[in-house]
Amino acid sequence: MRTNPAQEQHLRDLAVLRRVRDRIDREYAQPLDVEALARGVNMSGGHLSRQFRLAYGEPPYGYLMTRRIERAMALLRRGDLSVTDVCFAVGCSSLGTFSTRFSELVGMSPGSYRCVAGGHAAGMPTCVVKQVTRPIRNREARAQSRA
């Protein structure tokens, strides 16, 4: 079965976007921005943002911040790092931005989460903890509220 040129281009575009998403997953703690991600795949920042949002439902920066918050949640559950140390460990350069985004996604401040979540995950397999504690992105929260 042969695909037409438009379908082939669409598949190539999705492969490029998947590489961007995989890079974010691998390098979340590095100083990444949309322009740097776009340069890596020979796109403009605006085009990458539009295409990424179409494919994954959120812009690359939102995806990056969600990855950082997920990792921050794991570090805060360990309890051996301060909120500031966690902020910088996950690649955020501003404690205020980190705390605001964390609160938006998790529903409480990083300090409160550290106090509350420390003992709740004890004894649970890591894969279960990751699924149960996964932050809810804005688009998912809206979809749940309609149900």
Describe what this molecule looks like in 3D.
The protein has helices at residues 5-27, 34-40, 45-56, 60-78, 83-89, 95-106, 110-117, 126-132, 138-146. It has 147 residues and is an all-alpha fold. α1 (5-27) runs parallel beside α4 (60-78), α2 packs across α3 and α4 packs across α7 (110-117).
The helix fraction, in percent, is over 70%
Question: How would you describe the shape?
Answer: elongated
Question: Beta-strand percentage?
Answer: under 5%
Largest sheet: none
What's the average pLDDT? Answer: 85
Structural Rg: 17 Å
Count the DSSP helices.
Answer: 9
The parts where pLDDT drops under 50 for at least 5 residues are none
Key phrases:
mainly alpha
Secondary-structure map:
Blueprint: H1 5-27, H2 34-40, H3 45-56, H4 60-78, H5 83-89, H6 95-106, H7 110-117, H8 126-132, H9 138-146
Helix pairs in contact: 1-4, 2-3, 4-7
Brief characterization of the structure:
With 147 residues, this protein is mainly α. Helices cover 71% and strands 0% of the residues.
